[in-house]
Amino acid sequence: MNLRIAVRMSLCLLVADPALADTLDERIYMEFLWAKTPDGALARQQTRQFVTASEHGHQVCVAAPAAKGLELLVLDAKGREMSRQRDPDFSGRKHCYPAVLGRGGSPGQWTVRAILGDGRSNEGTVLVHARLEDSPSYRQPQPYVLGRPNYDDSIPPQQWSGRLVWAMTVDAQGWVTDVVVEEAVGVGERLRERAIAAGYLSLFPPGLAREGEPLVWRRQLDFAPD
User: Fold this and answer.
1) DSSP of 53-89
2) Contact 72/112 with Cβ under 8 angstroms?
């Protein structure tokens, strides 16, 4: 399914090195997940943060056109190789792999590089710290995990046009306590339940200021067929 999706939010998952812009293949899609998505789930947990001191089942997902074989390379904040895993059976269809973070890596912005069997590659960056409390993302009033609706394969590609806006109410502990769909246009109406599920999967750092007034965080997705 080819879709053009515009996401309005203060969260960036993939940041490519400008020096590599001419060699990286942006058609190779990469995504980082906080935890493995159960089969049949309506939404998944996109994340900008991994942690190494405890087990959360972090995932790296890759999809690519006309691919055969994949190598995933993980580099720490100092560029040291922390892991390398190969999947000779990768065919390009989106697949998620455990994020192998190794031991003793330098905290900060890590790079995950996806290299296809024909040499094409792309890479993304993700924050990695031993504990969430050590990360700057944990001290900011924004989500470190932001739920995203899973696609509904029963919807024909030409019908993927519309908008979806939902608002999350976040308590002082960082839990989403309520999700309201504020706008659902076109295909967005058919994704309403998925947006609600995505909202409840989002994770925020604690904030004592929310004891009196909960945080309301909005997210908008715009869909258009290519």
Assistant:
1) SS----EEEEE-TT---EEEEEE-TTS-EEEEEEETT
2) yes
Distance, in Å, from the CA atom of 217 to the CA atom of 168, rounded to the nearest integer, reads 5
Answer yes or no: are the C-beta atoms of 56 and 155 closer than 8 Å: no
Q: Supply the pTM of this predicted model.
A: 0.86
Order across the sheet with 95-98: list the strands: 95-98, 59-63, 29-33, 43-47, 145-149
Instruction: Give the chain's count of helices (H) and strands (E).
Output: 2, 14
Instruction: Write the CB contacts of 119 (distance below 8 Å, at least 6 apart in sequence).
Output: none
Amino acid identity of residue 219, one-letter, is R
Lookup result for tokens 């470190």: 144
Of 111, 65, 106, residue with least CA distance to 84: 111
Q: How far is CA 124 from CA 11, 26, 38, 52, in A?
A: 13, 10, 24, 18
Q: pLDDT, tens digit, for every residue of 110-160?
A: 999 999 999 999 999 999 999 999 999 888 888 999 999 999 989 998 999
